[in-house]
Amino acid sequence: MQGIKAALQRAQRWQRPPNWTKREWQAELFALARAAACQCLFEQPDADDNTLTRYILAALKRFWREEWAYAARCVPLVEPSLPTDEGEPCDVLEFVATDWDENRIILRLALQEALARLSEKDRFLVHCLFWEGKSQAEVAQGLGISRRAVRKRLNAVLKKLRAMLE
Q1: Rounded CA gap, 43 and 68, in Å?
Q2: Which residues form the RNA polymerase sigma-70 region domain (predicted)?
Q3: Class of the 101-164 domain?
């Protein structure tokens, strides 16, 4: 139980994805932590608290990354209107700017536009490295090219993105 508690305390410090309410997010993390603990203890019946905590944190971090990747692709930043406390609609960007920094929103929109202008190969490379969290070696193996070629292609893609964002 200490492993679950320690992992959840750490995970509570992570920024919640925008498509989750605080209550739903905490409930989902708790359920996922319990499932990961059961799986860990099934695979390693004599696991100590540190091993259990690391196992749970790995599962929670995978889930957190998947949810942020989903939110980045699918959750719209602009909706017609959002209610205020008084029940009247408010300006969406004004609402979002209170939760997120306005500059991050503008940067995110610009980045989405720049990524859309990249070639399919370049978008695939960015997706694997930054959204899926794969290493350069894993991407190289998957594409059947050398790690150095992946690094060179990544540098070229980042240079293109910088030029588009300037």
Answers
A1: 28
A2: 114-163
A3: mainly alpha
